[in-house]
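Input for the complex:
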Amino acid sequence: MEARLNTAPASTSFWQRLRRYWFGYEPMRHHWWETFLMRVGVALIVWPTIGGTSRFTSQPVPHGMAAPGWNFAAADGGSFLTRMLPGMDFTWIGSEKLIKGTLFTLDLPGLPAWDVTMLTFWALSLVLYALGVFPVITIVPALVASVAHGVLGNSQGAIGHTTQIVSVTLLAIWLAAVWGHLCQAFGWRRPHGLRQDQMELDWARQSVMATYVASALTKVYESGGNWMADTPYFGLQIAKSTDMAYYTHLVPADNAVWLAQYFVDHPLVAQIALGAGLPLELFAFFALLNRRMALLYGLALITFHQTVTEVMNLGFLYHKQLLLVLFVNPVFWVWVAGDWGRRRFGPRTVDSGKSLPAAESC
Amino acid sequence: MKGWKRRMARVFLPMIKKVHQWILWLPHKVHWFFVLLTALLIPWLTRDAAKPGEWYPFSNFPMYSSFEKQAYYVYVTDLEDRPVALYPTFGNWTSGVKKIFDNYFKAEAKALKKPSKKLTAEETRPAGDATLKQLKETGRYPEEVKKYAGFRLYKVDITLDDHGKIVKETSLVGQN
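Predicted:
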């Protein structure tokens, strides 16, 4: 980092350098070990969302692909699309027999017999993805399982958003894998000359940040531009979520319930405290610019989610985990710090010029 | 006429070219594609659905997109008004039960051609009964459900009184 600043032309002002440092676009060219660790991280985040049967076994209020016409039907009067797109049955994801039942028994000589289930295939899918083995194919079972769980869950008459970000991330990774192979097949240049694995993580990051920007745009649109002004009424939502948390398990919530009345009594504090969330979401695409911004935004959004968790009892677990793996990327920064420490305090060696300092890649 | 067309072409063609160049230049195209898809296209395609903007795995994330001067939630009790833990009994969170009720509640308001906020507890009753019926029929743990002779659904309205204090009002809206 220091080297970059020192090598800038003498004519560039401090502000220009500052702007370039934070807002300059530098595609994230991850090292192979980074992409491997990030893929392992993504696989570990995905597994708890697909590693079992669904809690639901029926579709009382079909949603999305489960609905006739896929919920688009009304747009054309419910005729053509309803015929073209019959609702799909996702109840199979709730079947213990199908998901956890033995498909066949693998009995290899010298090894204990192994009951292979649908879950075995999904676990294998994630392991192969983490190892970078042909993700165009290997990630598909995990993607299908993730979407099936989500659509069935949302077909109970209540829309949940807990795992949406996981499914979107898997979809983006798969799309990047497909696009990367098309680039290879037709000799097209990959965006910014990224490697296949780097592009998959880049598209995953782009899709994650799109959820934040879309959320902010919805806030602006739905509130008629009054979102900031109405934030004191957020106190009512805190009171609501506190009580709701209690009735789930009949255990009193340990959130900051005092904030409910406080926000109503101190509207300016509410506007400042909550208002910060809107620009953070609206400009989330800045996180895609370079590693520094990714780190800054990743930490800011994790803090934002953690605050909501403390106040509202809403988990955002997968959001936080994906932000940690894809944006904060702590292993890389530990490596940068270690490299800096080695160069600063370690024994001096003659630089062959072949290896770049870690700071050069951030 | 020809001159008019030529003038229009002189104005618009460079504009179209500029837009094209801008699209080519635009970084993070996948990001903006997902933003357009989730914030504009999906909400438009699902505009007549019960939950516009929601199409798993895409969502425009309408939660907390506007704050009103009132909020509500629902909870379930047994027939002696003792609260029932929702997750161990039905495999559903309070938020999920509230959303199920909300669907029936809004449908009821639509049928009665009244704003949902103006429905009385009596008018809300079909929505509450239907919610309990669905919970009993589709609950994850039927053996837990069978332990109860029946259930009641209560709706708690949260508002501000004249002094700006948060107040709650509970009403019975369903029994099954």
